[in-house]
């Protein structure tokens, strides 16, 4: 049996950094549209005494609509540890019994307010990206959302919905490179005071990268005003208006990395890959420590199956921030696997698995299984494939993975029988 490759696209490119532009080169009339397409990757080889070749994993995971605690309103504020509001939108995430869900964003003053379960279009960060419905990203740019098929998440939602409280739930702000204070929501009910107080973000030590560019803090008033208008327009789904404001922002302040990144996202979602690359490159030329453009560039390279660039780009991102992006480790592992660097692929996949505590990327387990297969650890490969099915039992390739596991188990059974039939030494 030959297992076909099923790797889908999602990340980006170090080569994009070469596009160092003059102001305006990423600008275009009009805007908005569907996200970029997906690509595919290759597989391995089949040996005479080993199971059939295993496929590359897909990245698709979808979360069902959350009905947990609908009707409960929550509000509050996020501040940096110096008392100032975050210069960019920050995601507010609810974690219930180990399952995380992004609920909303802060405004320009750091305030947030939302009704639980009513913000299905909100995504936490780049790690949620997956072609689906358009939603607003952490930087305010429309982007795809991701969902999970995890049965456990559905069970948690049903339990909490029936209890009509938030037992086992916490709330935090999510910003790469920062540690958030945590607010305990246990016991909070529908008619309680919705104000949960202030969440403080603390800069993590030994993290060089950031999702908050220093250029945003340095932007002159007119550029920042245009940028804030663009973010508000994007929240309302007015992509064309947002693009016009972003054009004004980078014209007034050519080093405005966050604005360049947002323009890149708009181009990317319109399928204008070359323009997107140039804008991401300009963002990195303005601020090489801004991590978001690396992730976007890496996705574009995955779509093109440019594995060298995928490895280089995700490697740079991981160096800048080794703690906040399991997605970067996952795609670094995918690149290593496709380049037949199986030790590197295994190491990156293990790191992705360790960081992905919310299991947003169940394909990590499948990739680990494939990497272990290449290392001839067939028992370990079967174990990781089983974990994948536990995390994503309704995945489109679940039937294929079950066949792979069955074949591995048959091979292991024959191997065990052969050892048992050998005469003692």
Topology, element by element:
Elements: E1 11-12, E2 73-80, E3 91-96, E4 99-105, E5 111-115, E6 134-136, E7 142-144, H1 151-163, E8 169-174, E9 178-180, E10 182-184, E11 195-203, H2 214-218, H3 221-235, H4 239-252, H5 257-269, H6 273-286, H7 292-303, H8 307-320, H9 326-338, H10 342-355, H11 363-374, H12 378-391, H13 398-421
Parallel strand pairs: 2-11
Antiparallel strand pairs: 2-5, 3-4, 3-8, 6-7, 8-10, 9-11
Question: What report would you give on this structure?
Answer:
The chain has 425 residues and is an alpha+beta fold. The chain has 2 domains: 11-61 and 214-416, Tetratricopeptide repeat domain (Serine Threonine Protein Phosphatase 5, Tetratricopeptide repeat); 73-203, no CATH class. Helix content is 42%, strand content 13%. It has 13 helices and 11 strands. It has helices at residues 151-163, 214-218, 221-235, 239-252, 257-269, 273-286, 292-303, 307-320, 326-338, 342-355, 363-374, 378-391, 398-421; strands spanning 11-12, 73-80, 91-96, 99-105, 111-115, 134-136, 142-144, 169-174, 178-180, 182-184, 195-203. The strands form 3 sheets. A 4-stranded mixed β-sheet has the order 5-2-11-9, with no helix packed on it. Residues 1-24, 29-69 and 123-164 have low confidence and may be disordered.
Compact overview of the structure:
The protein is α+β, with helices and mostly antiparallel strands and about 425 residues long. The protein has helices at about 150-165, 215-220, 220-235, 240-250, 255-270, 275-285, 290-305, 305-320, 325-340, 340-355, 365-375, 380-390, 400-420; strands at about 10, 75-80, 90-95, 100-105, 110-115, 135, 140-145, 170-175, 180, 180-185, 195-205. Strand 6 (about 135) and strand 7 form a beta hairpin.
């Amino acid at each position: 049996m030959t297992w076909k490759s099923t790797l889908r696209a999602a990340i980006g490119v170090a080569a994009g950094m070469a596009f160092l532009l003059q102001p305006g080169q990423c600008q275009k009339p009009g805007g908005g549209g569907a996200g970029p397409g997906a690509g595919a990757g290759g597989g391995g080889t089949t040996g005479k005494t080993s199971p059939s070749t295993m496929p590359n994993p897909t990245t698709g995971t979808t979360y069902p609509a959350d009905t947990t605690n609908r009707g409960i309103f929550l509000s509050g504020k996020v501040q940096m540890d110096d008392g100032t509001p975050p210069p960019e939108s920050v995601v507010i995430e609810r974690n219930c019994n180990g399952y995380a869900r992004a609920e909303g964003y802060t405004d320009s003053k750091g305030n947030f307010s939302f009704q639980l379960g009513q913000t299905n279009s909100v995504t936490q960060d780049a790690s949620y990206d997956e072609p689906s419905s358009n939603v607003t990203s952490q930087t305010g740019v429309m982007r795809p959302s991701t969902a999970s098929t995890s049965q456990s998440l559905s069970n948690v939602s049903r339990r909490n919905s029936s209890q009509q409280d938030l037992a086992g739930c916490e709330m935090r702000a999510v910003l790469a490179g920062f540690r958030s204070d945590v607010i305990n929501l246990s016991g909070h009910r529908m008619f309680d005071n919705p104000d949960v107080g202030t969440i403080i973000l603390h800069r993590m030590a030994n993290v060089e990268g950031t999702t908050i560019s220093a250029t945003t803090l340095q932007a002159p008033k007119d550029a920042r005003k245009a940028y804030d208008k663009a973010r508000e327009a994007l929240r309302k789904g007015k992509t064309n208006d947002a693009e016009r404001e972003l054009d004004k922002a980078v014209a007034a302040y050519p080093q405005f990395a966050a604005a360049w990144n947002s323009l890149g996202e708009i181009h990317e979602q319109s399928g204008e890959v070359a323009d997107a690359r140039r804008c991401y490159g300009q963002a990195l030329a303005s601020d090489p420590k801004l991590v978001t453009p690396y992730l976007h560039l890496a996705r574009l390279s995955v779509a093109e199956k440019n594995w060298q660039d995928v490895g280089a780009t995700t490697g740079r991102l991981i160096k800048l921030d080794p703690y906040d992006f399991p997605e970067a480790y996952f795609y670094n592992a995918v690149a290593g696997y496709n380049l037949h660097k199986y030790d590197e692929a295994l190491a990156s996949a293990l790191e992705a698995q360790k960081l992905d505590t919310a299991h947003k990327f169940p394909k990590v387990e499948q990739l680990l299984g494939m990497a272990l297969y290449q290392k001839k650890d067939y028992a370990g490969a079967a174990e990781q494939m089983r974990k994948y099915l536990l995390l994503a039992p309704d995945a489109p390739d679940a039937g294929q993975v079950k066949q792979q596991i069955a074949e591995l188990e048959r091979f292991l059974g024959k191997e065990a029988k052969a050892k048992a039939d050998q005469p003692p030494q």
